[in-house]
Amino acid sequence: MELFKMAKEAMSMRSKVKEMEKALKSKIVDIDYKGIKISMNAKNEIVSLKLPEDFGKNSVKDMEKMMFSAMQEAIKESQKAMAEESKKLMGGMNIPGLN
Fold first, then answer.
1. How many domains does the chain have?
2. Is-contact 39 46, C-beta < 8 A?
C-alpha cells in the first residue's frame, strides 16, 4: 500500500513541476539599463534585447561593460521572479533547495 501512495505523490509532484515550468516560462521581467532593454523569463531565458540607437558610438570596452551590467540586472530580476513563482506554486511543500 505504501508503494501506491509513493507513486501517487510522485505523479502529483510531476504535475506540479510541469505547472511550475509553464509559469516560469510565461513570467517575463523587463529591465532598462542605460537604454539597453532586456526582457527575460523567470527561467533565465532572454526573450528580447533592444539596444539604443546611439549604442555603437561608445567604445567597445564601454559597450561590453554596459551589456554585462544590463545582463546581470536582468538575471537578478529573473531570479527574483523565479523565487516568487516557485514559492507560490510549491507553497507548503518542503523541497530541499527551494525553501
1. 1
2. yes
Mind listing the pLDDT tens digit for each residue in 14-34? Answer: 888 888 888 899 999 999 999
Within a domain: 37 = yes
pLDDT tens figures, 26-84:
999 999 999 999 999 999 999 999 999 999 999 999 999 999 999 999 999 999 999 88
What is the extent of the structural domain holding 33? 28-84
Complete DSSP assignment for 35-90:
TEEEEEETTS-EEEEE--TTGGGS-HHHHHHHHHHHHHHHHHHHHHHHHHHHHHHH
Integer-rounded Cα radius of gyration of the chain:
19
In a domain, 91, yes or no: no
